[in-house]
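Consider what follows.

. . .
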Amino acid sequence: MLPGLYTVILTVANSSGCTDDTTMVDYVNIRGPILISATQDTAEGCAPYPVIFTATGYNTDSYVWVFGDGNSDTIVTNADPANPDTTTVTVTHIYTHGGDFLPVLIITDPLDSAGQSCPYPFTLDSIHVPGPQIGYFTNDTIGGPRDVMFTDTSLLTQDVDFYWWDFGDGHSIGPGIGVIPAGTDGGLSFGNYNSSGGPFTGPTHTYEDTGVFTVTFGAYVITGTDTIDTCKYQVATQQILINDSLITFIELASQRQYVVYPNPNAGTFTIELSGFTKEEVLQTRLCVRNIIGQKVPFESSKKGDGSISLELIPKQKGIYFIEIIGTTSRTTVKVVVN
């Protein structure tokens, strides 16, 4: 039942069919605010995506918007309970990444004489923000061969129209459509991509020279009728080190092994290093990333038997990649926390 004054009518009847009634006008007073209207004005485009929220209420002391992305905003009108009135308020919220969001508006009336108020929540229309959370993972090759494999770990990619890669060595792959640059690959990349227009999600690239290269993976979301209305997303967080230790790498690869177990488990792993000296085990470094390429905190300790224990902090369910970085080689192991 909505807040307001309600009239009560009592009707009684006896077994002879005689009736009588009495009316009590505005007898019941349900406290609380009244939401008259709530609207949201969305714009064309993609993240950062502004949305204007407007609400009109009666006897409303506060308006709280919970935007569905972990953020909220509050407007207090300091309404007078003795003289209720109608107020209209507006807030603007910017969604910073793509996804579907369900905002909620909570309105509350002024405090009564006992210091109490009544909050009323209202679920608003869902908001769809075009745009992905871009990320990638690489085997991060050190030494030969110079073929580096990349894996797309992006989320919320349903609105992506085209991807592109810049490998940091003067070569790239891209569709070359409208404002989206064309690739200059020169036949050095192969794998899960199509040179006629995507998806470019899992290429392997050959580096011709040694050095350190910054790799950029990006996505385009076309929001209008052509590529002029285009949103660009990119991440450039990986560096690839290429050197000329091909012979050493191959020799060591045949003698050394990395074993990670148990996999899957609840978040605690043992890494066995077979064929490594004690000094090499002590110098081994670890790095853990989640499925979108973000570094994940962990604790590790090196044991006397040549193994390393690793515990994720916190132990959240999901897919992770453990990079095992030695003095002359490096490998990556995919693990699952259940």
In short: The longest strand covers residues 230-242. Residues 194 and 242 are 26 Å apart (CA to CA).
